[in-house]
Amino acid sequence: MNEDIKSAMDAVEREDYDEAFRIFRPLAENGNALAQSNLGTLYQLGLGVGRDLVEAIKWLKLAVDKGDGSAAHNLGTIYLSGSPQIPLNPAESKKWYRKARELGFEVAEPAWYE
Predict the structure, then answer these.
(1) Sequence spans of domains, the chain
(2) Residue from 43, 109, 47, 52 nearest 84 by CA
(3) Nearest-angstrom CA–CA distance, 104 and 14
(4) 67: left (phi > 0), else alpha (psi -120 to 50), else beta?
(5) Mean pLDDT, rounded, for 51-68
(6) How confident is the model at residue 106 (pLDDT cuts 50, 70, 90)?
(7) What CATH architecture does domain 3-113 belong to?
(8) Dist. CA 95–CA 56, nearest whole Å
(9) Distance between CA 19 and CA 22 in Å, rounded?
(10) Which in 85, 88, 100, 101 has the greatest CB count within 10 A?
(11) CA distance 38 to 101
(12) Distance between alpha carbon 52 and the CA centroid of its chain, in Å?
C-alpha cells in the first residue's frame, strides 16, 4: 500500500473524512482502484462530501472494472436500498452482489436473497 493510500485510510480510521476525500480524489482520478472504491463509498455515505449516489456509482464501477469486490458489494447495496436519486432495483442489486462474490468478496448477498 502506498503512503498516500495509507494516509487516506488513517484519515478514515480517525473519521477525518474531509482529509480522506482530499487524498483519495486525485488517486482515484489517476486510476487507483482502492482509491476509486473508497471515494465511491465516501460519496455513497456522504462522508467528507455531499451524498451523491450517481457519483458513487461512477467511482464504484471503475473500481469493479479493476477487480474490487467490495465496490461491487457497495453497488449491490445502493440498488437494494433505493433512494430518490437511484430507484430500488432488486435485479440490479443481485447482479452486483453476485459480481462481488465472483471477485472474492465473502459477505456478498444477504442470505434471504438466494
Answers:
(1) 3-113
(2) 52
(3) 28
(4) left
(5) 98
(6) confident
(7) Alpha Horseshoe (1.25)
(8) 17
(9) 5
(10) 100
(11) 19
(12) 12
